[in-house]
Write a structure and sequence with these properties.
45 residues, alpha+beta, two-stranded antiparallel ribbon, 1 helix, 11% helix, 13% strand
Length: 45
């Protein structure tokens, strides 16, 4: 068993639901443009 601790990842606040969300690997190249925490929020803007 490994004791893998998460690093402190950058966070943003979602424009739609106003909840905090953390950086994800899939957003690595365009983190500056990410505004929504999920597809659901993006669609309901």
């Amino acid at each position: 068993m490994s004791n893998h601790k998460k690093q402190h990842l950058p966070e943003k606040i979602c424009v739609v639901c106003e909840r905090p969300f953390s950086w994800r690997k899939k957003w690595e190249k365009n983190w500056d443009e990410v505004k929504y925490c999920s597809e659901r929020c993006r669609r309901s803007r």
